[in-house]
Amino acid sequence: MKFRRDSFTPAPARRHSLERTPLVTKPDYGIDEPCVIRRLVLVSVALPLLGIALTIAGLVHSHLIMFAMGATSVIVAVGCTATIFLMIKSSRHGKQRVRDTVLNEFQFRGDERVLDVGCGRGLMLLGAAKRLREGTVVGLDTWSQEDQYKNAPENTFANAVAEGVPLDRVRLQNGNMCDMSFIASDSFDVVLSSLTIHNVRTRKARQRAVAEMVRVLKPGGSIALVDCRHVREYAGHLERTGWVTEVRCSPVDWNMFPPIRVVYAKKRDGPLMEEV
């Protein structure tokens, strides 16, 4: 497997200091969708105030519609608060259970090359690395902090230290999942992607991202796509193109919120068929 010399970021220059620091003792995989949570917090604070005001006004003026609007505002605020709780719980605990469920589907030899597309702070990436004796893991991301709180390569490396993963086996790349031309075809034994592809806005671009993941996967290699939206779209696209075999979708998993499903498949031997 060959890469451009400057395409993958090396472990940080101070990696030995990172490995010795007593502060890096517990991995932190961050809060997902922080922008959504912030908006929900604002709504959950503002709506009760509005709801109480409308409810009181409705009672004082005997205005049924105003009273109903106030009561509805309070109910919606309670729903927003519950959603915030579920999303934070999902980020702190649920996604670790999902990671283990997904990785348990693979029979790792221990020397695989694994690509995690949209690796973020390394949940899937480092989970796979801990199952390898000699293999290498590569994480691709644009490091957007809209998708994950404090999403940065430095935090991924810090989590590797906390997980006891040697930094010389972890490589990170800043790049777009829809164009991974800097990675040669048939490079990885396993390709993972968790809660990433749905961020691509158009169907055509999402299909391009899936195509790129299959392209860099070795014949006979395995792919797992975890997402809360468009999962049937990914599975259907893979089946129509004939790139892979054994396509299957998991049941809905409520360990995460919003709940997720997983598409599993294996790449066919031989050249890829034309995209349809």
What can be said about this structure in brief?
The protein is built from 7 helices and 7 strands, in the order αααβαβαββαβαββ. The chain is an alpha/beta fold.
Structure in words:
The chain is α/β, with parallel strands linked by helices and 276 residues long. It has 2 domains: 15-27 and 105-267, Vaccinia Virus protein VP39 (Rossmann fold), CATH 3.40.50; 34-92. The protein has 7 helices and 7 strands, in the order H-H-H-E-H-E-H-E-E-H-E-H-E-E. The protein has helices at 15-20, 34-60, 64-103, 123-129, 153-163, 203-215, 231-241, and strands at 113-117, 136-141, 170-174, 188-194, 217-227, 244-249, 261-267. Strands 3-2-1-4-5-7-6 form a 7-stranded mixed sheet, sandwiched between helices. The two termini are 28 Å apart.
Could you say how many structural domains there are in total? Answer: 2
- Tertiary shape: elongated
CATH architecture of the largest domain: 3-Layer(aba) Sandwich
**Can you give the helix content as a percent range?**
40-55%
Question: Roughly what fraction of the amino acids lie in strands?
Answer: 15-25%
CATH class of the largest domain: Alpha Beta
By DSSP, the count of extended strands is 7
Number of helices: 7
The largest sheet has its strands arranged as 3-2-1-4-5-7-6
What is the rounded distance between the termini? 28 Å
Q: Structural class from helices and strands?
A: alpha/beta
The biggest beta sheet reads: 7 strands, mixed
Stated plainly, the CATH topology of the largest domain is called Rossmann fold
Rg result: 22 Å
Mean pLDDT: 89
Can you tell me the residue ranges where pLDDT is under 50 for at least 5 consecutive residues? 13-17
Per CATH, the superfamily of the largest domain is: Vaccinia Virus protein VP39
